[in-house]
Amino acid sequence: MNRIMETESICPECFQVIPATIHEEDGKVYITKTCQEHGEFSEIYWGDYEEFQRAQRYERFGRKLDNPRTKVDKGCPHDCGICTEHKSSTVLGIIDVTNSCNLRCPICFAHAGAAGYLYEPTKEQIRGMMENLLSNSPVWTPALQLSGGEPTVREDLPELVEMAFDLGFVHVEINTNGIKMAENVEYCRTLKEAGVSTVYLQFDGVTPEPYIAARGFDLLDIKKRAIENLREADYRSIVLVPVLVKGVNDDQVGDIIRFAIENKDVIRCINFQPVSITGRINRREREGMRITIPDLMRLVEEQTDGLIEKRDWYPVPAAQPLCNFLSVAKNEPFVDFSAHPHCGMATYLFIDGDQVTPIPDYMDVDKTLETFEKASERMAEGKERRAKMQLVMGLIKNVKFKALSNYMKSVVLHSDYLSLNRMHHSMILISSMHFMDPYNFDLDRVQRCVIHYATPDGRIIPFCTMNTLHREEMERKFAQPITEANVTPLYDVFSLTQRIREEGRDEKSAQKEVEPFQALRARHDF
């Protein structure tokens, strides 16, 4: 056993903070910890030690908030809110607008049916949470995700989107299973008109089996119809979100990527999420489900026939030199991608007609990052013109493909969110975030989390601690009992049938389109 570092974790049984060791064994990385009451726990942390070391080289520390919301009392992670121990700021803010949902997924931790109560903040409470995120200092929060539960069950969702833009967010995305969007293209247009930037679409595979296993029902046709309706409504930014479970859909990562490429006009990203394991479960069962980020990278290389290799992936903080440059260039704090290097990995596929190429094939990534770092240093010294000229020359030298180089030069010259957005929309981002659970929990990762929930009590809570420790307590504080009156009718099959008939389609066509929704309604008793 090769000991790598010491950290702290929590006991999966009692959630008390305990010392932990991260170590290498047989080419893999494990986290091991011992609770005096509940014994020893050992869990795989990263499935490849060499990739663990490579990711570690890109570690960057960001800026702490000047205005933390809570004080240190019980200690991390029990003081989340964000406390003074947190070492990063918010890149993406999340607000759960409801825990009501029109599915009952076996792997979900956030729906009313499982919780036994309804959590649905008022519009005024949501405004307060938005204002709280926007008040972060010195680094602002440009992006907001409205999540749940299933946010589309709220009738006022378009109003919430409009409110977010009115308050100052520049990017608003909806985290959805897509059922409401599959029902009606007009609903997609309504959200588009309200300002929705991106649809973050749950998408577990390209065959029925993963949906049956993970969601309890074959949702594939509904997912495809949602994408078609979003395309018709002129969306150009859909993120596919597969929750990866070993033995369920780990054989489909290549097919999911090919599906995204085939739909490159509307799909901007795939964000693979290795499953977080909730509840008490023995080690053998966990090992039967567990996938780590390096496992995904290997599967992608194998299932794309080497189109995307393991070496093409980079950790989240690799983007920090670009963000630092934009901060210096605009003389104001830009988003701070200082997440822990083992939280997530990503690469870009550059699209040029029918040609799809991983961005490292066109760019010396390390030299380009170094060029941005040097340019930031020169600009901080007041040598802005010289810094930008040298940076453009560096891009010409290190970026082999002219179209990509032009996008990057636009970012350099304009140094704004819009030019960065244009570059992003010329590519497909292939990414993975592995959110933690009580077994692989690492306090060092928690303290550098950049994805944060806002809550009605004025706190801002890191993603992994919210879903591991704080969700139930927080929601119960603002919850109401579930009744027939406050559960929304979720499958309006009659209206869907009427609309199809009004469009002049024959009965056979109408029945084929309605069948998946009829089956869903029959399966779920609302």
Considering the chains and any ligands shown, give keywords for the structure.
526 residues, 13-stranded mixed beta sheet, four-stranded antiparallel beta sheet, 17 strands, 40% helix
Description:
There is one protein chain. The strands form 2 sheets. Strands 5, 6, 7, 8, 9, 10, 11, 12, 13, 14, 15, 16 and 17 form a 13-stranded mixed beta sheet that branches. The protein has a 4-stranded antiparallel beta sheet with strand order 1-2-3-4. It has 20 helices and 17 strands. 40% of the residues lie in helices and 19% in strands. The chain is globular and about 65 Å long. The chain has 526 residues and is an alpha/beta fold. Residues 489-494 have low confidence and may be disordered. The longest helix is centred in the C-terminal third of the chain and has 17 residues, at 507-523. Among the domains are: 2-56; 184-275, no CATH class; 352-424, no CATH class; 493-523, no CATH class. The termini are far apart. The chain has helices at 49-56, 112-115, 123-134, 157-167, 179-183, 185-194, 208-215, 220-232, 253-262, 283-289, 293-303, 320-330, 365-380, 384-398, 402-414, 417-424, 443-446, 463-477, 493-502, 507-523; strands spanning 2-10, 17-25, 28-35, 39-46, 92-96, 143-147, 171-176, 198-202, 238-241, 243-244, 267-274, 314-315, 344-352, 355-358, 427-433, 451-454, 460-462.
